[in-house]
Every structure is written in structure tokens, then in C-alpha cells.
Design brief:
By secondary structure, this protein is mainly α. It has two domains: 172 residues, no CATH class; 293 residues, no CATH class. It contains 19 helices and no strands. Helix 3 runs parallel beside helix 5 and helix 18 packs antiparallel against helix 19.
Length: 476
């Protein structure tokens, strides 16, 4: 069950919100959320739920002992807990990858077993690691009740696709929270915006991207240069709209239940540098690696050489976190190179480059980064990269691309606008005018009341009429 499905929007979510609002005590509300979250998670597999329960139990147990320990014992308990969590993650996510590389080198094993990746394991593993680490640092108190820690780890709003929420960000809300009418309104608005981004725009962009990005290496090599560029642009729009949509829906659902989740995106495609891009793309993941990997390794406090090594480690891990394939490692290293170049080669000279030129450069770099991200097969990746530069045999056969663009230019334009704060700024402008004009206030109130309903209807129509509803972050 995914957020952008009819059964989730019109059955599961409605039932959850109804039962949550009818509960009078905070304990009852939390139990309602916990039961809903476990049902949601178990929808994919009861085995997945068992793994989630195990990881949470490990962190609950170690968190209690880390809090009352000291010295080396405290550090060893933390290290053991993190090791267990990473072993579980590694077993399910990287065993097949490692065995496949061993087979290519040594011929054994003859057949690599297929291991199904538990839903959202990369997200809740990092959340649980941050919990134990923060208990170790004294930033949060260890949760005495296992079921409350399980609620934190399994909250269906963000367990599957983020944002990565730290325990300290929701600890108070788990104990006591209130949902005001204004907060419920903001939550509904945010959820419907995310739903429309996913169901109407991201899914449509995905269909365009798949036109020229489907098939094996031979099929990809037969695509025209124009077609590959068109699918690349659609894929670039899709991945932002898809991922940010899930974060929007998570934040919205959190608000409807009294939780305030951190923002995960801040219009990254408007960035003027790769450093800024990664400060505004999947921000909770970047903050995790900064606070729990980069800084503990020494950050920039031990000289330039060590800083570069720390960045190399962080970006190698960032790539591997996204998937067990060499293309993800290359993707991480690709950004490592550009970030190091910006930091040490360009430095302050970057600010002297005209803003439009910097922005264009970022878009080109990110475009090719997403090409690396999409194709796990190296032969397919090579075919696409060659094709983008017109090095394949039929590079000058753009008729299909021209027809596809003519049919979808409006979609691509609207999707590009959705990657900017234009609509948000227009709403804010209308709100400011409400201070000076009662008529504008009426218009603003109408817009705020009508747009969630309109977006919900349009999204429902898109979902009913289209069975193509891919979930990009299932693999993570």
C-alpha cells in the first residue's frame, strides 16, 4: 500500500484520522497510531514487520543500558548496537550485491540468492541509530516503554520514504500533542499538494521518461539523442516530484496528527552550487551523515587531507545507502568530486561567477548525476551516455522525440514550475494583500478552502484512470 493509492487515501487514511480524533486520551491516540502503523507496514509482509520489531527491540534494550553506563562500557554498548543494526541492514540490502561480485571474480556461488529488501529498512535503521547515538550523547532520554519507541520507528507517515526523523524531534509529541483546526487545515493542504505532485505530475513524467529509457543496452543504444535528452529531463523532474511528494504527504499527515516532521526539500533545482543543492535535497539524510558520520570522523578539524578523506567516506556511504549496485557508488563519488572541486579549487571564486551560469551548471551536473542513478547495468549506462552525446548509430533520428515532446511539453512545463516556489509565493502574496483588502482576504480564504478539494479530485481522477503508479523509493 502506497500513499498515492485509492485504498490508502480514501480508506486507510480516513479511518486512521477518524479513530485518532475519537480517542480521548494520549495513550489511546498513540495506540491507535501504533496499530495503524503496524497494519500499514504489515500490508507488504509480516516478515518485514518482524525485522522492524527486532531492530526496535535491540535499540530499546541498548538505549536503556547506554543511558546508565559510563566510560568505555558506554561506548562499547553504542558500537555493539550500531553494529547489530548495520548487520541486519547489510544482510538484506548488500548480501546479494557482495555475492554477485564474488561470483564474477571467482565463479562461486553458481547462483546468487534473491533477498527481498524489507520496506523502508534504510530509513528506520538510520532513525534508530540516531536515537541510540543521541541517548549516548545525552541529547535525549532513553524511552522506558518499548511500544512508544516502536511507535517512533514505525510511524506510517514517514517510516517508508522519510523524512528521516530524529527521536528528539517527536519525543514531546509522543507524550503530549494537540491538533488545532489551523494545523489540521495546513496538514490537509500539504498532503493534497504532495498527492497531486505524485499522482498527476510525477507519474506522468515517469511515463515520458520510460519511453526512451526502457529496454536493455541494445534498445537504449537504438534511441535517438533527442529522445534520450527528453527522457533524461522527464526523469529529472520525476525523481524530484516523486520523492518530495512523499515528504509533503508525510509532513501533512504528521500535522493532522499533531507531529511536526522536519522539511526534506527546499527547491534544490534552484541551487547555485552543488554544495547548495545538497543542502536542499533530502536534507534529513544529509544532516544524518553530517552529524553521525562526518563530524565523528573529524569533519574539517584535522586538516585538508583528512577532510577530503572524510568527505570520500561520507559520499561513498551516501551512494551505497541508496542502493546495492556500483552505479550508486559511482553516483556518490561523482558528487564527491564536484563538492571537493567547489570547496578547494573554486572556493570564494564561485560567488563571482554569474548566478545564471552557476545555476545552469548545477542543472547539467545534476542531470548527468540522475543518469548515473537510474541505470544499474553498466552496459545500459554506457549506451545512454554515448547516446546523449550523439555517439550512437542513429543519433540523428529525432522524429519520435519530436512527437513525444509536442504531446507532453505542457506537462513538462507545469512539472518544472512545480519544482519552484512560484505557486507558494503567489499564495503568500495573496495572503499579504489580505492585510490591506477584505476582498483579497476573501479570495485568499476561498483559495485555501478550495485548492485541497480540487487537488484531491484531480489526483483521484489521475489514479482511477492510470494504473501506472511506480514507487521509486521502495528499493531504499
Amino acid at each position: 500500500m502506497v500513499f498515492s493509492s485509492m485504498i490508502f487515501v480514501f480508506a486507510f487514511l480516513v479511518l486512521n484520522l477518524l479513530t485518532h480524533s475519537l480517542c480521548r486520551s494520549m495513550r489511546a491516540k498513540n495506540i491507535c497510531l501504533l496499530v495503524s502503523s503496524l497494519i500499514f507496514y504489515s500490508w507488504a509482509s509480516l516478515t518485514f514487520t518482524a525485522i522492524l520489531l527486532f531492530d526496535t527491540a535491540v535499540c530499546w534494550f541498548f538505549g536503556l543500558f547506554v543511558e546508565v553506563s559510563s566510560g568505555k562500557a558506554r561506548k562499547r554498548l553504542l558500537a555493539l548496537c550500531v553494529t547489530i543494526l548495520l548487520l541486519v541492514l547489510g544482510t538484506f540490502k548488500y548480501t546479494g550485491f557482495l555475492l554477485e561480485n564474488v561470483r564474477l571474480l571467482f565463479g562461486v556461488p553458481e547462483k546468487v540468492p534473491e533477498i527481498v529488501l524489507p520496506l523502508g529498512i534504510s530509513f528506520y535503521t538510520f532513525q534508530l541509530i540516531s536515537y541510540v547515538a543521541d541517548v549516548y550523547r545525552g541529547r535525549v532520554k532513553a524511552q522506558r516503554k518499548f511500544w512508544k519507541l516502536l511507535l517512533y520507528a514505525s510511524l506510517f507517515h514517514q517510516c517508508v520514504a522519510g523524512p528521516i526523523v530524529r527521536y528528539g524531534e517527536v519525543a514531546e509529541a509522543i507524550e503530549e500533542r494537540h491538533v488545532t483546526t489551523a494545523q489540521m487545515s495546513r496538514g490537509i493542504s500539504r498532503f493534497t499538494v504532495g498527492l497531486a505532485k505524485k499522482a498527476v505530475l510525477a507519474n506522468a513524467c515517469a511515463a515520458v521518461a520510460d519511453i526512451f529509457f526502457s529496454g536493455d543496452a541494445a534498445a537504449l543504444a537504438a534511441q535517438s539523442t533527442a529522445g534520450l535528452w527528453l527522457s533524461g529531463a522527464a526523469w529529472m523532474l520525476q525523481i524530484y516530484l516523486d520523492f518530495s511528494a512523499y515528504s509533503d504527504m508525510a509532513v501533512g499527515m504528521g500535522l493532522m496528527c499533531g507531529f511536526h516532521y522536519p522539511e526534506n526539500f527546499d527547491y534544490p533545482y534552484l541551487s547555485g552550487s552543488i554544495t547548495d543543492f545538497w543542502r536542499s535535497w533530502h536534507m534529513t539524510l544529509g544532516n544524518f551523515f553530517r552529524d553521525y558520520v562526518y563530524i565523528p570522523l573529524g569533519g574539517n578539524r584535522r586538516g585538508r587531507g583528512r577532510q577530503v578523506l572524510n568527505l570520500l567516506i561520507v559520499w561513498s556511504l551516501t551512494g551505497l545507502w541508496h542502493g546495492a549496485s556500483w552505479n550508486y557508488v559511482l553516483w556518490g563519488l561523482y558528487y564527491f568530486v564536484f563538492l571537493v572541486f567547489e570547496k578547494f579549487a573554486l572556493g570564494k571564486r564561485l560567488e563571482k561567477i554569474p548566478g545564471l551560469l552557476r545555476h545552469a551548471a548545477v542543472l547539467v551536473i545534476v542531470f548527468f548525476g540522475w543518469i548515473l542513478f537510474r541505470f544499474e547495468d553498466m552496459a545500459s549506462l554506457g549506451a545512454v551516455l554515448r547516446g546523449l552525446f550523439g555517439l550512437n548509430a542513429n543519433a540523428a533520428a529525432p522524429l519520435t522525440a519530436r512527437i513525444t515532446f509536442t504531446s507532453n511539453w505542457a506537462l513538462l512545463l507545469v512539472s518544472a514550475v512545480a519544482c519552484t516556489p512560484l505557486v507558494t509565493n503567489l499564495r503568500l502574496l495573496l495572503k499579504k494583500r489580505s492585510v490591506r483588502s477584505g476582498g483579497a482576504m476573501t479570495a485568499y480564504a476561498v483559495v485555501e478552502a478550495v485548492h485541497p478539494v480540487l487537488l484531491l479530485v484531480v489526483s483521484a481522477m489521475a489514479l482511477v484512470g492510470n494504473s501506472y503508479n511506480p514507487f521509486l523509493y521502495w528499493m531504499f
